[in-house]
Design goal:
By secondary structure, the chain is α/β, with parallel strands linked by helices. It folds into four domains: 107 residues, no CATH class; 220 residues, P-loop containing nucleotide triphosphate hydrolases (Rossmann fold, 3-Layer(aba) Sandwich), CATH 3.40.50; 247 residues, no CATH class; 45 residues, no CATH class. 50% of the residues lie in helices and 11% in strands. The strands form three sheets. The protein has a six-stranded mixed sheet with strand order 9-10-11-6-12-13, sandwiched between helices. It has a four-stranded antiparallel sheet with strand order 5-4-7-8, covered by helices on one side. The protein starts with 7 loop residues before the first helix and ends with a helix.
Length: 750
């Protein structure tokens, strides 16, 4: 009689489960001799595919040996030998192990099954929750309503969203959470994942493999949110490279990261678009909506998490793309992952692909079980699903609250939920003696550890690399900034072309410098006020996921933009300086450029403050100019510094317009030779300083040299270094303030 064969996939599953039990019951490091078995499909064996490449088993054995693991004795089994072994599976305490004859005679010798085709083995997760209650504080009435209508004590101050919701998901299960709008689907998933619950009060117990857990669940789970947020200028492979650098363990070799990226790309069907940019809606065309959804999953499964949460993954997709995405989830669940996702109006084909469903209505559980039993369960309650009707749509309609028929709908929902509650009451009685801890109170102690997988330097390198690529590929913005600097320089040069050095030229040159300071300030401020509002959702999500620190993100963004804010002042000054005919000393030109570069970067720093304060791009655009105008007025051109009212004197000291303008004037005029005077002018510094006529006849005041011109404009000739230091201090101070605003927003969202 021929020995019956067992599919390799079944053997893989048996090995995974046996290995999980083994890890829980023993410690490999305490055993001197460990024997490693490797299952190899002969169709992919090295003999048929060439022996040039080393096998995964050899690589894994080498990694374990380098890590100081015990002695490894590698065995390889082919399909034929597995068929023979499968005929007589061994029976152990777990009941699902396979017994092989080994070189060791001692039956206590440990054997590790290295299932090379499955990948990295991780502990399976069974997620359960008990008596989850969620309360949301109600907002207070407006001041006008309280004054006009008075206080109404009957209004509830808190609203309950979830009522004693309990359930359980076994490992390797794909669960769909369904219900009408407002049923509590997303709230339940956020509570189980310990995410986005800062504004609500939660009570109940969440357990992983029977052990109470708190926020530590984030270490073994991934959360795919409904909205797809990406840096659109990156390609799919670049995005996954960035994710792998910050999500995977810092000790993982670069080769293994790249290998894992390719595995995920193939696993989720992203090979065709791997080198295509993700795209920016309305600006840059990229991958499709379905590919973006799969990319969101790929980003999360890079670390091979055993538990996945997905908030409406099929939202915005057509029926075919939705089915394709759920097929990918099916494959992930088949590999042992526990997957929970909310879903809205799935097609009948998509509905049939789920292993289990959880139906919520009015914050209560109406049904939780297999999709196959759901129809018969509702039929037993007197709600049979009509023929050729989508079961998912029928369940949602049955549990929905229809406007105009609220009372009947609420009675029907209450009846269905009460029946289910009675159904699970027996299980609750059996567990009544078990003392459950509240997962959302201080009772469940979480181990204090850093949420970041990568080191600070690796975080900075990865974020800086991404920011640099993003800036370089935004060619339109780069060209606009260069074009703006060139045009502004040409306009200033043509208006003040070869300005004469006479009494009128002093005021004209002052106007030139103030124009350059003003144009550089406004153009650079407008260039950065949208930086943080655009990427803020991406930053908050990635920061919350523990990918990088706030200071790393801020530093990388600012460093990546420094080159453009050094190049644009250089173009502006180089074009305008020589066209206007300013101080011809080349050192003075270099100092002028240095001052303008400082002014530009101080304006950028001030723009970062506006950018981190403003919640949207529109708000940032509206806030920037009004906040800058008071500083412009006290810049020393429209109002001399000695004439500033005492109650506004503090604005003068934070105005980079004043420091930049004064420094440029000093650099231009200090120790400059004689300035031509009119024939009837009196060349006395005293008359030039106090502005009165002097000398003979009706002569006009004359400013004889550059130092007198500095005093005439209300500045001190020894303040050059002081102005430079003040500009540097303002640049650093503004950036520190903007960083603190960004840090506050990050912690507020956290």
């Amino acid at each position: 009689m021929k020995t019956p064969s067992v599919p390799v996939g079944v053997l893989y599953a048996n090995f995974i489960e046996s290995f999980s039990h083994y890890l829980q019951s023993s410690n490999m490091a305490d055993n001197p001799d460990v024997e490693m078995w490797t299952i190899v499909d002969v169709n992919n064996a090295p003999e048929k595919n060439g022996s040039a490449n080393r096998s995964n088993a050899e690589l894994e054995a080498e990694k374990m040996a380098e890590a100081g693991s015990p002695t490894l004795i590698n065995h390889e089994e082919t399909q034929d030998s597995l068929d023979t072994i499968a005929a007589n599976p061994g029976v152990t305490s777990s009941g699902n192990s396979l017994v092989f004859s080994t070189k060791y005679k001692d039956p206590a010798t440990n054997v590790i099954a290295n299932v090379t085709s499955v990948g990295d083995l991780r502990e399976k997760v069974t997620l359960s929750w008990k008596n989850i209650n969620v309360f949301v504080p109600q907002p207070r009435p407006s001041i006008c309503r309280r004054l006009c209508c008075g206080k109404n004590d009957d209004e509830p101050k808190i609203k309950q969203i979830l009522f004693d919701v309990s359930g359980k998901i076994e490992a390797g299960t794909l669960l769909a959470v369904m219900g009408s709008s407002g049923a509590g689907k997303s709230t339940l998933m956020n509570v189980l994942a310990h995410r986005n619950i800062a504004q609500v009060q939660v009570m109940g117990t969440v357990e992983v493999n029977g052990q109470p857990t708190g926020i530590d669940i984030n270490a073994l789970s991934a959360y795919i949110q409904q909205e797809d947020l990406f840096i659109g200028s990156l390609t799919v492979r670049e995005h996954l490279t960035f994710q792998a650098a910050l999500r995977m363990d810092k000790h993982t070799p670069k080769a293994r990261r790249e290998e894992r990226i390719e595995e995920v790309i193939l696993e989720l069907g992203l090979k065709k678009c791997a080198d295509t940019v993700i795209g920016i809606p309305g600006r840059l065309r990229g991958i499709s909506g379905g590919e973006k959804k799969r990319l969101a999953f790929a980003s999360e499964v890079l670390t091979n998490p055993p538990l996945l949460f997905a908030d409406e993954p099929t939202s915005g997709l057509d029926a075919f793309m939705a089915q394709s995405l759920i097929s990918s989830l099916q494959r992930l669940a088949a590999s042992g992952r526990t997957i929970m996702c909310t879903i809205h109006q799935p097609s009948s084909e998509v509905y049939a692909m789920f292993d289990s469903i959880l139906l919520l209505a009015e914050g209560r559980t109406a049904y939780m079980g297999s999709t196959a039993e759901a129809l018969s369960y509702f039929k037993s309650l007197g709600y049979p699903c009509p023929m050729n009707f989508n079961p998912a749509d029928y369940f949602v309609h049955t549990l929905a609250i229809v406007p105009g028929d609220e009372e009947n709908c609420k009675d029907r929902v209450k009846e269905i939920c009460d029946v289910y509650s009675e159904r699970v009451a027996e299980v609750a009685k059996e567990e009544s003696g078990y003392n459950r801890q509240d997962s959302f109170q201080a009772v469940v102690k979480s181990e204090k550890r850093s949420p970041y997988k990568a080191s600070w330097c690796r975080q900075l390198g990865a974020v800086l690399w991404r920011s640099w690529i993003s800036n370089n590929r935004d060619v339109i913005i780069f060209r606009i900034r260069l074009f703006q600097a060139i045009i502004t320089g040409l306009i200033a040069g043509l208006i003040y072309l070869q300005i004469p050095y006479d009494q009128d030229g002093i005021q004209n040159i002052a106007g030139v410098y103030f124009f350059l300071v003003t144009s550089a300030s406004f153009s650079n401020l407008q260039g950065v006020i949208f930086v943080f509002p655009v990427e803020l959702p991406v930053f908050l999500r990635e920061h919350k996921n523990g990918m990088y620190r706030t200071d790393v993100y801020y530093l990388a963004k600012t460093l990546s933009e420094i080159p453009i804010f050094i190049i644009t002042p250089l173009l502006l000054v180089t074009i305008s300086y020589w066209m206007i005919g300013l101080n011809e000393n080349f050192v003075r030109f270099l100092i002028c450029y240095g001052i303008m570069a400082l002014v530009s970067n101080v304006a950028v720093s001030f723009g970062y403050i506006v950018s981190t304060i403003a919640p949207t791009i529109t708000a940032a655009t509206s806030l920037g100019p009004p906040l800058m105008l008071p500083l412009l007025i006290f810049g020393g051109f429209f109002l001399k510094t000695i004439s500033v009212p005492v109650y506004f004197v503090w604005l003068k000291y934070i105005s980079w317009f004043m420091y930049g303008f004064e420094a440029l004037i000093i650099n231009q005029w200090k120790d400059y030779g004689p300035i031509a005077c009119a024939l009837n002018a009196t060349a006395t510094p005293s008359t030039a300083m106090n502005g009165s006529s002097g000398g003979v006849g009706d002569g006009v005041p004359c400013i004889p040299n550059g130092n007198a011109a500095i005093k005439f404009l209300g500045f001190e000739e020894d303040n050059l270094l002081f102005d430079v230091y003040c500009l540097i201090a303002l640049m650093v101070g503004f950036r520190v303030i903007s960083f603190l605003f960004l840090l506050r927003r990050a912690y507020k969202e956290q």
